[in-house]
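input
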Amino acid sequence: MIRILQDEEVGRADESRLIHSIFKDGGSLMKVLDFEHRAEQTEMAKSVAGSLNTGSHLLFEAGTGVGKSLGFLIPSILHAKNHSRPCVVATNTINLQEQLLEKDIPSVRKVFESVDELHEFADFRCALLVGRANYLCSTRLHRALSGQADFLDGSQRKELERIAEWANEGAMEGIRQELSPPPSSIVWDQVNADSSLCSNKRCHPDHCFYRRARSRVENANLVIVNHSLLFSLLGAGFGPGNEDGGVLFADDFIIFDEAHEMPDVASDHLGLSISSWALETFLRRLHNPRKGKGLLKRVGRLSDLEAVEHAIHAVEDFFQVLHVDTLGNKDRSRLVEKGRLPMEVFPPLSLVLRKLIELGETCEDETTKLEIKDQSKRMQGYLNGLSEVFDLKNPDSVYWMERTGKKNQIIHLRSAPLKVAEILREELFSKQSSIVMTSATLTRRGKADSFREEVGVEDTDEKLVKSPFDYESNMQVRIMSDFPEPQGKDRSIYLQCLVQSIYSTARAIEGGSLALFTNYADLQYCYHNLKPLWTKLGRNVYAQGQGFSRSELRAKMMDEGDVLLLGAESFWKGFDAKGPSLSQVILTRLPFENPGHPIMEAKTERLASDGKSAFMEITIPKAVIRFRQGIGRLIRSHTDVGDLLILDSRILHKRYGSHFLAELLNPNYELSQVEDLFGEI
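output
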C-alpha cells in the first residue's frame, strides 16, 4: 500500500527535516528536555515517518530504553497536523495511557512550543477515547434521582447520591474511573451513557459528558485508546465505512504500542461472553420478585412480571446445571458437541423478549419506551449469544464455559475466534490506513514471522533496534543446572528448593528482589513459607493478591529498597522499578501457557490436522516472548545493575531450551547448583 500525495499536500512542512532536527545529537530533545541522544530512537522516528508518508505498514521492535513513546509520538503528531489526518494510538493498559497523557504528550508539546519552526504544531489536540458505558449521562442520573430507579436498595441509593455529588462538584471528564472507589456496576448501569436516553436529541451538549467527549475525539489530531476498546469497536462494526477509508475515523492511521498483545486481546474481544451474574442481574432490573421493584413494576402487567420471574428461575436452574453437572470439579470445560447444554432456558427468555417488545409498542411515555427498547436489545443480544453457544455456530471459533468470581460461583459461556488473522486482515490491514506496530518483544531470533502470521499482516516493513543498555556489563546471569523439574515425581522437593533458592539469593542481594511465577499456587506456597523467614531478617516480603495493587507494590518496593516481591502474570510485563530497589529478578519457571485452555486445545487440534506441532508453532513462541519480558524487568536505565537468576533447569537440558538461551541479553551466564544454597535456612 502506497499513499499518494495530493497536490495540496506538496510544500507542507518537511517532516523528515523536522524529525532530524528534533532527534539528532544536540537537537531539540537534548536542548529542551535535557534528554540524552539515542541513535535507536532517531531511527525509530524516521521509520515511523517513512511509513506514514508512504502509507505502508510497519513492524518496529524497539529494545528497552530506546524511548519508543517519543519515537512514535513526535512523527505521528507532525504527520497528523501536516496532513489533517487523525492519529489513533492504542495502548494495552491504563498505566500506559496515563504515561502518554501525563508525561509523554506534555513533553512533546513543550518541545514544539520551545522551537520556532515547530510552533505551528504545538496546538495539536489530544483526546482520550473510552467506551460509551464509561460516561455519566446527566439525563439518566436525573431520572434515577427522581425515583425512576426505585428498585435500588438503600446502599445503592447512597451510591447514587455520591455520583450526583461528584457530577455537581468535581466531575471533569464524567468517566466512571474518576470516582474513587468506582461505583458498583448495578448503580452505574442506571446512569451511564450507554442508552437510547442519552442522545443528541435529549442531551444538551453543555451538560452531556459523552457528547463533549465525542466532540473532542472527532476534532482531535491524536486519539488515545486501549487495545480492548479498539477491538471491541471493530467487532461491533464501528468505523467510517469503506468509502471513507480508515479504521475508526476517515483517513486515520493507527499506532499500536505494546503490539505483541494484539493477538490475545483481539481474541478476547472479538468473541462473546455471557455470565450468569450479568443475565440474572439484567432480569432482576426488569423485575425483582423479592424486593418488589424493577422497571416493569411501574409499567408492566401482571403477566409481564410473572414472565420475568419464571425466566429468573429458569436461568438459575440453567446455570446450576452447568455449575454442578457440566463443569463438576473443573473450572473450565470446552464445548465441542451441539446439544450439550439444556435448552429449557430458551422459551422463558424468549417470552420476556416478546413482552418487552409489546410494552415498547404500547407504552405512551416516550422516555420509558426508550428504556424498554434498550432492554429489548439487550435481551435479544443474550438470546443471540446463547443460540450461538448452543449450536456452536461458527466452526472457526472455540466455545467453552468457565467459573470465575471470589467464590467460583459465576459461570461464563464464552467463545473466541481460533484465528484473529483473517479478521484483522479485513478490519485493519486492508484499510487505507498505515498501521504501525511497536513493542520490545515482537520478534523471535530477530524475525517477526510468528507475530505477522498471528495478526494477519503480510505486506509490511520490518525494523529492529536493540536496547542501548550494556547488558553484558550490567547484568549477571545465573542458571541453576540441577534444579528439580516443576512437574517431577515429588512436588514437595521442588517447592522446598524453590523456597530455599529464593530465600538464599534474595537475602544476599543489596536491594530488592522480584520473583516471577507462572501460577498462583506456587506463589502462595512460597509466600507463606518465606514470610516468617523474611520477618526474622527484619525485611518485608509482599506478594500479588495479598491486599495491595500492583502500583502499591511497586511503591513499597521503591520506598523500602530491600523488599522481596512475588508476582505472577502481569508482573512479567510492564512492571518498572528503576535503581537498586530492584536489583534481582528470579524466574522460577519458563513461562509456558496452560496447555489445557480450550483455545489452546482447539488450536492444537487444528495444527495437528495440518501435520504441525502446536508446541513449536504456538507454545514456544509465546513462552519466549514472555521470557524476554520477564528478563526486561531488571535493567530499566543506563545506570541499573542487577542479577538474573533462572531456576528452571529445563532451559539447559531440554531441546527447546536453546530458544530461550538465544534470548538472554547477556549470553555469558554462570551455572550454579542447588546444593550451593542448602544450609542457609
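quick obs: The first helix runs from residue 15 to 23.
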